[in-house]
Amino acid sequence: MKSTCFALLLSFAVPALADTVYVSLTKEDAIAVVDGSTGESRGRVKTGAHPRGLVLSPDGKRLFVALAEDATVAVIDTVTQEVAARLPVDESPKSIALDPAGRLLYATDDAAQRINVVDIVREHVVKRIPVGAEPEGVSVSPDGRWVISTSEGEDVAYWINTAKQAVVDLSAVAARPRASRFTDDGRQLWVSSENAGTVTVIDVADAHQVKKIAFDLPDLPRDAVKPVGIRIDKGRRFAYIALGRAGRIAVVDAQRLEVVDYLPAGPRVWNLEFSPDQRRLYAANGGSGDVSVIDLESRRLLKTLAIGQGPWDLAVGP
């Protein structure tokens, strides 16, 4: 009887989720739309070949999808769940980011080694910015002043000044940089380096390195730890780093810049996204075809949602 009562109390203690989770399925050429509370499907949207990076418009009405093998960015109407437009870009877009106003979209072009700047209203590329070899990740600072392009082939982060729409600086980072992320206060840039197994924290004011964070998992060999996706909460209290094939998410004290915990996830955990209230974290597990849902207050796994083949990136709306 006690265990039954405890289970009932626990069920009331866990907040109901009302999130809509969008997940790119690279092996299905589709976006899965899932109810975060039940794990039930809210639909599937066929997009085109090899969807990778996702980003929601500021009003949540449009989902932008980088199609790595279609040379386009699909624009999905989140109400009708249909592709409403296709933005032409060059060759091989993998990662995308929006400026704070939601007017310009920045898309990596791995093949041509540049960033495409796309005017969303006019639906065409307005600038092509040369960057380093194998540009993988792209991010925009909260004030819209900077765009960062990480170069896997050159182990640097390129600083693009948006007023000039040109590279004005670069920061050396460790081997094979993947994702980058600004803190919400705009003071720091975090860059994950997959092959080095580290994250570099950079001061935005002068682009100097503050610290390089390493990850130590005694039960795993060092080369199994492959940092990729990054999320940092609004108060810069904690950062969460997807550790790839290690199947873990590192929790980093974002003030002391020290690892404080590791959370379980699925194999090849690629990317992460917060719920809108930042009480939960969603993790795309490419190796197991599912998404981990983690309660951040208790740091425990709430559930695992079966999604489909090759989940890579996520976007979450109400």
Short description:
The protein has one helix and 28 strands. It has 318 residues and is mainly beta.
Give the helix/strand layout.
Elements: H1 2-13, E1 20-25, E2 30-35, E3 41-46, E4 51-56, E5 62-67, E6 72-77, E7 82-88, E8 96-98, E9 104-109, E10 114-119, E11 124-130, E12 135-140, E13 146-151, E14 156-161, E15 166-172, E16 177-182, E17 188-193, E18 198-203, E19 208-214, E20 230-232, E21 238-242, E22 248-253, E23 258-264, E24 269-274, E25 280-285, E26 290-295, E27 300-306, E28 311-317
Antiparallel strand pairs: 1-2, 1-28, 2-3, 4-5, 5-6, 6-7, 8-9, 9-10, 10-11, 12-13, 13-14, 14-15, 16-17, 17-18, 18-19, 20-21, 21-22, 22-23, 24-25, 25-26, 26-27
